[in-house]
Amino acid sequence: MSSPRYIGRFAPTPSGYLHFGSLLTAVASYLDAMHHQGCWLVRMEDLDTPRNIPGASDHILRTLRTYGLHWNGEVLRQSDRLQRYQQVIDQWLESGQAYYCDCPRREIIANNGVYPGTCRERQLPAAPDHAVRLRVTDQPLSFDDRLQGTITRNILQTSGDFIIRRRDGIIAYQLAVVIDDIDQGMTDIVRGADLLDSTPRQLWMYQLLRHPAPRYLHVPLIMRLDGEKLSKRLGSAPLEADQAVATLHRALRILTPDIPPELASAPVADQLEWAVRHWQPERLPQSRQILDPTMVQG
């Protein structure tokens, strides 16, 4: 039996740095992979080319090494795989599973964020400013998350036919990650709970591509005391190499609350070794977000 395969996902935008929120989900994915004697791969999700910063990917990779998160194999960069994504889009356009759309964003906003299917039967031709949408089922899709339990969504009712290529030509995240996960043989996905609502859309694409979906574990988002998410979009401070020992210990206090205090000054390799052996994700809070306990407790 082959080893389980996990993915560490990193979008090198807009700051060009790795932040604590991203580190936390990366560590959770790494711990789960190592605990199950699996492989941990790294992917740069750099499709949003106008926002990419030169050197950002290399900076992220250096930071991962500094924090002891060593990956298997070559780093996959989505910007190198545009032809592969377009191949799938073309197949779906040809079969009628996907279609062109010129609807403005305000129309979807006016419909409570659910695309009303305006272009479903219009048979618009290809055009530089047309998005591509994927037809979705009107049936509920369910999956069992290892922490959050059973999640059920009807995509047509919650979002409608969704975009797989934007009007500016950029491939949508939803499509790219599914194709990458299939091509890389991913068996397990560990990521933040903010992506829970994306999972049914990805399950639908797995069905269309006739490929089994991976197992999912969505860990809670860590919120600041003011209620804001710890993320690069909120301007969180970039991780500093000389603070790796203290910052990793802070992350492990959240993910593995029983970590011994004496490990606070231990090398990152020793901290990770302990955390891999004691990894119990089922002990994490079964919620989408929690306050940062390391800040609450001081």
UniProtKB/TrEMBL annotation:
Its cofactor is Zn(2+). It comes from Halopseudomonas pertucinogena. ATP binds at residue 232. The gene is gluQ. Residues 9-236 form the Glutamyl/glutaminyl-tRNA synthetase class Ib catalytic domain. L-glutamate binds at residues 9-13, 45, 173, 191. It comes from the Bacteria. Gene3D superfamilies: HUPs. A motif ('KMSKS' region) lies at residues 229-233. Belongs to the class-I aminoacyl-tRNA synthetase family. GluQ subfamily. PANTHER family: GLUTAMATE--TRNA LIGASE, GLUTAMYL-Q TRNA(ASP) SYNTHETASE. Pfam families: tRNA-synt_1c (PF00749). Zn(2+) binds at residues 101, 103, 115, 119. Coiled coil: none annotated. The keyword Cell division does not apply. This is Glutamyl-Q tRNA(Asp) synthetase. Catalyzes the tRNA-independent activation of glutamate in presence of ATP and the subsequent transfer of glutamate onto a tRNA(Asp). Glutamate is transferred on the 2-amino-5-(4,5-dihydroxy-2-cyclopenten-1-yl) moiety of the queuosine in the wobble position of the QUC anticodon.
